[in-house]
Design a protein that fits this description.
Largest sheet: 4 strands, antiparallel
Organism: Aquisalinus flavus
Strand order of the largest sheet: 2-3-1-4
CATH superfamily: Dimeric alpha+beta barrel
Oligomer: single chain
Number of domains: 1
Protein name: YCII-related domain-containing protein
Pfam families: YCII
Helix content: 25-40%
Number of strands: 4
InterPro entries: Dimeric_a/b-barrel (IPR011008), Sec-metab_biosynth-assoc (IPR051807), YCII (IPR005545)
Family: Belongs to the YciI family.
CATH architecture: 2-Layer Sandwich
Number of helices: 3
CATH topology: Alpha-Beta Plaits
CATH class: Alpha Beta
Shape: globular
Radius of gyration: 13 Å
Length: about 100
């Protein structure tokens, strides 16, 4: 199964919108636990969330797009942009 990296960037008011939809966002991620292999916030220089990064095991780019479109952060306007890249793992030390 291919790996994809999904990088979502917050808009200028993303920090204000995040808390209100965070529980639904986390539920969305949990609902896809078989395909979300790694996820977490991207941080700005002060350590505040400025986006999110996901490592996904999905068959197609369309599945990644659907996952992203259904994310409550996307629906609420927390995210203003996204980048989807195919990814190949060469080194995996996360399980250590």
């Amino acid at each position: 199964m291919p790996h994809f990296i999904l990088i979502c960037r917050d808009g200028p008011d993303g920090a204000a919108k995040r808390p209100g939809v965070r529980p639904q966002h986390l539920d969305h991620v949990a609902d896809h636990s078989s395909t979300v292999k790694l996820a977490g916030p991207l941080l700005d220089e002060d350590g505040n969330p400025a986006g999110s990064l996901f490592l996904l095991d999905m068959e197609t780019r369309a599945e990644v797009e659907a996952f992203s479109a259904a994310d409550p952060y996307q629906k609420a306007g927390v995210f203003v942009s996204r980048e989807i890249r195919t990814f190949r793992i060469v080194v995996d030390n996360l399980s250590d």
